Amino acid sequence: MTNDKDSPPADPGNYDAYFTSRENDLRWYREMLRIRRFEEMAARSYTRGKISGFLHLYIGQEAIAVATKEILQPQDRVVSTYRTHGFAIALGSSPGACMAEMYGKATGLVAGVGGSMHFFDRDNQLWGGYAIIGNHVPVATGHAFASKYLGDNGVTFCFLGDGALAIGPTHEGWTLAGIWQLPIVFVVENNRYSMGTPLERSIPVNDVTLKAPGYNMAGDRFRVTSVAETAERLAAAAKLAREESRPVLVELLTYRFRGHSMSDPAKYRDREEVAESRSWDPLERTYNALMKRHGMTEEALEELDDEVVAEMEAAVEFAENSPVPEPSARFKNILVES
Amino acid sequence: MPEIQIRHAIRDAMREEMTRDDRVFLMGEEVGHYKGAYKCSEGLLEEFGERRVIDTPIAETGFAGVGIGAAMAGLRPIIEFMTFNFSAVAFDQILNNAAKIHHMTNGQHSVPMVFRGPNAGAHMLGSTHSQAFEPFYAHIPGLIVVAVATPYDAKGLLKTAIRDPNPVIFLESELMYGVKGEVPEEEYLIPLGVADTKRSGDDVTVITWGQGVPVALKAAELAAEQGIECDVIDLRTLRPLDMESVLESVRRTNRAIVLFHGWPYGGVGCEIIAQIQEQAFDHLDAPVLRVCYEDVPMPYAENLENLVLPTPERGLAAIREVSYAR
Q1: How far is A331 from chain B (nearest CA, A)?
Q2: For residues A172 and A315, what is the distance between their CA atoms, to the nearest angstrom?
Q3: Which domain does B209 fall in, by range?
Q4: Which residue segment(s) compose the domain that A54 sits in?
Q5: Measured between beta carbons, which residues in chain A are less than 8 angstroms from residue B241?
């Protein structure tokens, strides 16, 4: 696999390169929009004091989760971080259960014991939900080890942020994946900031895939501007992992439009930078492609938006009306009863 | 019954469980080609091959995490720490992942695995290589903590630990791998969470575990020479604690000491004493005493180390003190 530094299209207004059929673009648009509207509702509930703890939004990065869902096989696993709502929604978790989890309700994804940072939905291939930076990298490597051991043909997709590049567990997980040539794709979602610290102050090189050869991994790097391209290139990585048991390191250049968490006003970046990044927003670009390339009307897209908003409002309503966990629930699942 | 060393009891337990269940594998530094830093895995690589006896580079966080991830995905890992001193590097994996995943996923996942290796001071290794980790791990809900002191217990408890659906911290002793004892040829299992009375007596209860057991037994022998008969209870599992056995004994003897290889401050000894006073206060005729390391980092120099370690003589002094013997 080659290291493609800055992928086309060079012009954010070019909708020919990676926009395909109207059917696909519409489906992906809807999925990205579901995540964005979910996140906006979560932010609103947080502001209203309905959600506590930390809340890290995926707004701006939705295409990655949607592309992942697109290429996932049933035996594959997705392991992610504390910024994981987008994966849950994309992979098929119920928005109501996701919202209820953040409300600390019994109907939540993990019955209210985890909150925003600890989403797990095994039935939908979401294997976490890890909130200690980098400590899921060895665990995900262990999933891939099991796939190779059992010969189940599964690929583990391990997502991490650029903020996880300096910490030890990432290095150790990558080392073991490289030595044992495990079927795993490490995807660095480089949104340029680890909390408030820009990349240049947190990693020594600009191009994360420079690290790939040192761990005997294949590498790929590109800017996320559409679901189609992201899916295509993640699929190529997954093929190497699946068919050649080769670990792959993929760096995705992306951007989060909101602060690190709800308590972060993101004063460390200027308007121009945010505006430039917004011009590449895959959701926005797909919206434009649907109109300019596929001839859809603003009204039709508004109608779709209304449907999605209604779905997410129902999720909020479900969360608000759900019961809190029984007092005895705090004693559950500490040990497996043998 | 044949007599074997603890290291061979551990090896036999692993071999039997690996034979029984293809999901069981051994991973750690030097476990394969080197046959184990303390020769606990001799012959396993030859028998099971590199798929199931896996040498790792020096990366405790990495391979502890791999074990956790593999356990979640359906395997039964045995992760060997060359010594538990190095488990400190993997502490986050054990604290935040192994112990929490079953709970945090609302039971969607479990982590059936064993972390094993030697624990506590050995001989003249200095402060960083003489740590006693049971207070750290026994502190954490979601873990099971075992400490073994005989070949019989080591084999029976390790087999059970490997089959248990939870993460088990299995503490061995560098000083005791060569200790011999009888082990039956036929298969047996010892349940987790059950203490064993290693010596019976009605005067003083001596509660101990791991490397403390031979010291406690020697102290009890010295006490018997002076007419004081001790009940020596080897806890064997430190989480969950078999307080029933401890309380039954204390209600009978009305006196107790806790003797162990570890530090006094905030340790397992404190927990046992707290529970005794909560549940058997009226039965006590003397304060419960601790015989353990002094509250200092372990020094290297032999004379200094000997002053810090619990000895049969210090055990005897405590037994006499709670007996108000003159």
Answers
A1: 9
A2: 39
A3: 196-322
A4: 20-60+100-119+291-322
A5: none
Compute the distance between CA of residue A103 and CA of residue A119 in angstroms, rounded to an integer. 13
pLDDT at A2: 43
Q: Is residue B311 part of a domain?
A: yes
CA B68 to the chain's CA centroid: 21
Q: Is residue B175 part of a domain?
A: yes
Residue A131 lies in a domain: no
- If pLDDT is split at 50, 70 and 90, which confidence band does A5 have? very low
B124, B151, B182: which is the final residue of a domain? B182
Residue among B125, B121, B165 at smallest CA distance from B142: B165
Same domain, yes or no, for B293 and B162? no
B105 and A CB contact within 8 Å: yes
Residues of B in contact with A109 (CB under 8 A): 106
Instruction: Determine, for residues B62 and A176 on separate chains, whether the beta-carbon distance falls below 8 Å.
Output: yes
pLDDT tens, B72-86? 999 999 999 999 999
Q: What is the CATH number of the domain that holds B149?
A: 3.40.50.970
A193-194 and A184-190 strand pairing: unpaired
C-beta of residue B145 within 8 angstroms of C-beta of residue B134: yes
Say whether both B145 and B213 belong to one domain. no
| Mean pLDDT across A255-276 | 85
Q: Which two tokens stand for residue B18?
A: 């690996």
Contact call for B103 and A142, based on CB within 8 A: no
User: Do B260 and B295 share a domain, yes or no?
Assistant: yes
Considering its fold, how many domains does chain B have in total?
2
Find the residue in B nearest to A151 (Cα).
B51
Q: What is the mean pLDDT of residues A94-114?
A: 98
Active-site annotation holds for B261: no
Number of domains in chain A: 1
Give the gap in angstroms from C-alpha B226 to the nearest C-alpha of chain A: 45
Residue B290: give its domain's CATH number: 3.40.50.920
Active site residue B129: yes
Catalytic residue, from B109, B129, B139, B283: name it: B129
**Which residues of chain A neighbour B88 with C-beta distances below 8 Å?**
none
ipTM here: 0.96
Whether residue A56 lies inside any domain: the answer is: yes
Question: Which residue of chain B comes nearest to A140, CA vs CA?
Answer: B69
B106, B216: one domain: no
Report chain A's mean pLDDT, rounded to a whole number.
93
Residue B5 host element (H or E): strand B3-5
- B147, B247, B309 from B211: Cα distances, Å: 8, 22, 11
Mean pLDDT score across all residues of chain B: 97
Q: B247 and B143 in one domain?
A: no
Q: State CA B290 to chain mean position distance.
A: 18
* Residue numbers in A near B63 (CB within 8 A): 138, 172, 176
Using the CB atoms, write b or e for A307-326: b if 16+ within 10 Å: ebeebbeebbebbeebeebe
Residues A196-241: pLDDT tens digits?
888 889 889 989 999 999 999 999 999 999 999 999 999 999 999 9
